[in-house]
Amino acid sequence: METLKDTIIKQIIQDGLDNSMSYTEYRELVSTLVEKNANTGHEVTEALANYTMLNNKRMKRWDKTIKVGEAVSDAIKHKSINQTWIIITESWCGDAAHVMPVINKMAALNDGIDFRVVLRDQNETLMDQFLTNGSRSIAKLIMLDTDSKEVLGTYGPRPSTATALVNDYKVQHGGLTPEFKEELQHWYNKDKGQTVIADLLPLMG
Q: Euclidean distance between the first and final Cα of the chain, in Å?
């Protein structure tokens, strides 16, 4: 029997979906923001606009170069699923720029997956249902049964290996330095989305 809490969460999710866009629409939004030297979110700054510009370049590159292996591609294509994937993000988020093109490539392989994008600061009530250690960390993917809106799983804000690297560094140094963040970018560039693919496949059912 569905509880009142379940009903409320499903309504929050539906509100997020009503306020969502396709990945293509999101990419067009980010490109437009770059032209205006702007960014999504409550706070618009030169630094965040610059991150948005860098992320636009990253997503352009990954949209063209991400490869899903033949065996994995076939496995996804032949899955019988009816899911909606909502990713919570903002244009300035570096992790999102590396992860979202991979998720989009995977979702595009199966007609049973509807991939939608919502902006965190415009959907705070939704974000607050899917915190990471109490934090509004992004990118956060929510995987739903399309018909029932039941949450099947969540993913993010980073791939598993990147999460381990970040957590280990925080334990040793107490926080993330600019040097580490640069090293993390190198990791993403070497990994080429393969950890995201390996992480998500078991969650697809």
A: 23
Tell me the average pLDDT across 89-95: 97
pLDDT on residue 32: 98
Quick check: 116 and 76 in contact, CB under 8 A? no
Helix intervals (H) in the chain? 4-18, 23-35, 46-65, 70-77, 94-107, 124-127, 160-173, 178-191, 194-200
* 86 bridge partner residues: 116, 142
Q: Give which of 92, 76, 96 is closest to 40, Cα–Cα.
A: 92
pTM greater than 0.90 (yes/no): yes
Token code pair at residue 129: 């249902």
**Is the pLDDT reported for residue 205 higher than 90?**
no
Q: Could you give the count of Cα atoms lying within 13 Å of 153 in the half-sphere of its Cβ?
A: 10
Compute the Cα dihedral for 50, 55, 56, 61 and give only its sign.
Answer: positive
- Asked if 20 and 120 touch (Cβ cutoff 8 Å), the reply is no
∠ CA 141-144-150, rounded to 5°: 130
